[in-house]
From TrEMBL:
Superkingdom of the organism of origin: Archaea
Family annotation (SMART domains): AAA
Protein name (database record): ABC transporter domain-containing protein
Keywords in alphabetical order: ATP-binding, Nucleotide-binding, Transport
Nucleotide-binding found in the keyword field: yes
Domain called ABC transporter: residue spans: 11-248
Classification via InterPro entries: AAA+_ATPase (IPR003593), ABC_AA/LPS_Transport (IPR051120), ABC_transporter-like_ATP-bd (IPR003439), BCA_ABC_TP_C (IPR032823), P-loop_NTPase (IPR027417)
GO molecular function: ATP binding; ATP hydrolysis activity
Keyword Glycoprotein attributed: no
Organism expressing this protein natively: Halocalculus aciditolerans
GO CC terms in record: plasma membrane
Length: 251
């Protein structure tokens, strides 16, 4: 059943279904990401969050359903096409190049055809990498190698790498895992600044720690289906959400 029109949001997911053999990981999931918002995409472990975004970012073709980006049907488009269209994501398990410094790691993530066509302008590539590092709070760590960064710094480097593709929409995967409360606050402030600069964001997480003060709205899924959608306070008080997390003391 069609619930959304192609231009109901920057990203629109309509009737998405993904099966792996006999297992249905995502079932008839529909939602829209509005331009300029920070949307929380929340669900317990195994709820289907990664599968949803793997279907959106071109890792897997969906079994059924439609994905629209910027008004166009992009269902099943490969990952590099989605990046070209302006969709980027961070990965929880990322591996920066260990023998390159922070600036170089970001330089190497800059859109390749742009870098190649600007070989005469290497200074510009460097400048752009430095600018991105500054945006994510790594301006004073440009010459450090990844192993010299604290965990929170590595997360910021992953954010910088994703920003290097110049996205309009960024999917941020569990950004607060392993961070202290003050680091969560500092990273939230960075994400909020990026939003002020026009970057729409979907923050994916299995718990709500740190999210409620950052997000405008949340979608909560369980067993591959949407169980709640709304502003953070309503989500927190929603009975189905509380049931889904029953016993989950990490809410
Ligand atoms: N490539 C795959 N092949 C088979 N089953 C898969 C595959 N990827 C995910 N699944 C299954 O699909 C379901 C949803 O998993 P998914 O990783 O999307 O959940 P999640 O919400 O991202 O969980 P987490 O918070 O633990 O990352 C799970 O039952 C998982 O075992």
């Amino acid at each position: 059943m069609t619930e959304y029109a192609p231009d109901d949001g920057l990203l629109v997911i309509d009737g998405l279904r993904k099966e792996f053999g006999g297992l249905t990981a995502v079932e008839d999931l529909s939602f829209a990401v509005e331009e300029g918002e920070i949307l929380g995409f929340i669900g317990p472990n195994g709820a289907g969050k990664s599968t949803t975004f793997n279907c959106v970012t071109g890792v897997y073709p969906p079994t059924a359903g439609t994905v629209y980006y910027d008004g166009e049907d992009v269902t099943g488009e490969p990952a590099y096409e989605m990046v070209k269209r302006g969709l980027a994501r961070t990965f929880q398990e990322f591996r920066p190049l260990p023998d390159r410094n922070v600036r170089k790691n970001v330089e190497l993530a800059l859109v390749p055809d742009r870098v190649l066509s600007l070989t005469g302008l290497r200074g510009e590539t460097r400048e752009r990498a430095v600018e991105i590092c500054e945006r994510v709070g790594l301006g004073d760590r440009l010459e450090q190698t990844p192993d010299e960064l604290p965990h929170a710094g590595l997360l910021r480097l992953e954010l910088a790498r994703a920003l290097a593709t110049d996205p309009d929409l960024l999917l941020v995967d569990e950004p607060f895992a392993g961070l202290s409360n003050s680091e969560v606050e500092a990273l939230s402030a960075t994400l909020e600044e990026l939003r002020q600069d026009g970057l729409t964001q979907v923050v994916v997480d299995h718990n709500m720690r740190g999210l409620l003060s950052l997000i405008d709205r949340a979608i909560v899924i369980e067993f591959g289906a949407k169980i709640a959608e709304g502003p953070p306070e309503a989500i927190r008080d929603d009975e189905r959400v509380q049931e889904a997390y029953l016993g989950g003391e990490d809410r």
